Amino acid sequence: MKVTLVSHASVVIETHGMRVWTDPWLTGKVFNESWSLFPPPAFDRSKLGGIDYLWISHIHPDHFHVPSLNSLPAEFKRRVTILFQDNHAERLFHVLKECGYQNFQVLRHRQQIALGGRSAVYCYSAGTLDSCLGVIEPEGTLFNINDSRLNATDCRRVRSDLGRVDTVLSQFSLAVYNGFQPRESHLRRGAVAVLEKIFRNHQALGAKVTIPFASLMRFSLADNRYMNTFANHPRDVWDYAQKRALGVAILFPGDTYDSSARCDSAAALAKYDAAYETIDQLPYDTPAAMPLPPIKEAFHLMVRHLHEKYPSPLLRMLRAVVVKLPDLNKTVAFSIPADSFSEVESSRPPDLIMSSQPLHLCFFKPYGLQTLSSSAQHTVVRNRANWRIHRALFALNNAQAYGRLKYLLSGDTLRYFGKRLRAAVRYTDLTTAWIRLPYVYRLKRRAN
Questions:
Q1: Is the pLDDT of residue 117 over 90?
Q2: What is the rounded average pLDDT for all residues in the chain?
Q3: pLDDT digits (tens, 9 = 90+) for 260-283
């Protein structure tokens, strides 16, 4: 089996003459224009004719990147088969049909499907959104964890289904930050926790080699560039693994890993080290300021929708939120129960600090508030519990899990709450990861 790294979470997996391309993201920015590919992708479009399947892990835009998928040739779209988990697959397929794709295959949880010849694929759905891909051949098995959070039970189930896992692909750095303070300690611990997660999964799956990927991006806005200081580098993954005698293969975009040959990571590590030396010299954009009137209009439209979909007692749990907008030199307060949005005295202590453009997105798009966690464009100063309730409500709204009785008993809503409940149980054993002090110290030294 061969794995060629394209970019971020995108690889081409070759097995017995069949090729599966995962999560193509080839150009542009995602998450409110706040993430950029880093290093640049390496993809030869002349090789499209050899790709048989496209697998999409989940619907986040750094994995389901519609502009990249839409940019591919019409002949490729007619021929290739899209693989996606059995989790509202019809919605993703509808978007891709509009782009010209014609062939689709739903992958059910823990199901194997033959690719032809001597290979098969396997799907493991995790939580409410993510999924993993297994690629199975007689010589060995590859398991693409991607962004998924797997606990010990998940790993036992995967091993019972697949028999063995030889090669694991896994995310290796920070992807979310909820703005909680103190920033430095939250982010240092979070970065180390990702390393812990990688190698818990590596050991629980009995893997021979882990390939770190799905973090090949940089935070590229002026108000989130601080995140790059705390991000794990491939060198961090390598050093962590070497001290524990765990197998790791480091690939730079364009590199190929061959499971039948020894992988020398030295050249890739040197390229990454040189790339990260230049990260502060790259351009960092500042979003244009959004005036208060369109923010206020978007807020009132969103509140009307929430009052239609959720019972008043639930909405009354939300207290007013005060937001400082440094780019406008203004402070505003909004209340969803009262449907009020107004400018207030700048001396009033804020609950949140963010620029005007991401605040507008919070109200303008159903997914806007969730995007804040990925774009890292806000700081939570006070009243964290109240903000958590707002986040929970907006997540329900984005999932179309509405609270009024006529919606509450719908199949989609019940399935959503069932998945959330199972996820809460699944992840209890992920909350006690041991933080290894040498890696906290290293990240602290980098920050200084």
A1: no
A2: 92
A3: 999 999 999 999 999 999 999 999
Query: Can you give the residue range of the structural domain that contains 384?
Result: 292-398
Strand, coil or helix: 341: strand
Asked if residue 348 and residue 201 are part of one domain, the reply reads no
In this structure, are 322 and 229 located in the same domain? no
Pairwise CA distance, residues 367 & 55, whole Å: 23
Give the 3-state secondary structure of residue 218. Answer: strand
In this model, does residue 6 exceed pLDDT 60?
Answer: yes
Q: Last residue of a domain, which of 379, 398, 417?
A: 398
What DSSP string runs through 44-90? -GGGGGG--EEE---SSTTTS-HHHHHTS-HHHHHH-EEEEESSSHH
Residue 422 domain-assigned (yes or no): no
Residue 420: pLDDT band by 50, 70, 90 thresholds? low
Q: Are 187 and 174 in contact, with CB atoms under 8 Å apart?
A: yes
Amino acid at 386: N
Contact 215, 171 (CB under 8 A): yes
Q: What is the tens place of the pLDDT at every residue in 24-41?
A: 999 999 999 999 999 999
| Total domain count, the chain | 2
pTM: 0.91
Q: What angle do CA 156, 162, 163 make, to 5 degrees?
A: 80
Q: Residue 354: give its domain's CATH number.
A: 3.30.1050.10
Burial readout 31-50 (b: 16 or more C-beta within 10 A, e: otherwise): bbebbbbbbebebeeeebee
DSSP 224-239: TTTHHHH---HHHHHH
Q: Which of these three, 211, 246, 281, is where a domain ends? A: 281
Helix (H, G, I), strand (E, B) or coil at 430: helix
Confidence of residue 408 (pLDDT cuts 50, 70, 90): confident
**Statement: residue 432 has pLDDT above 60:** no
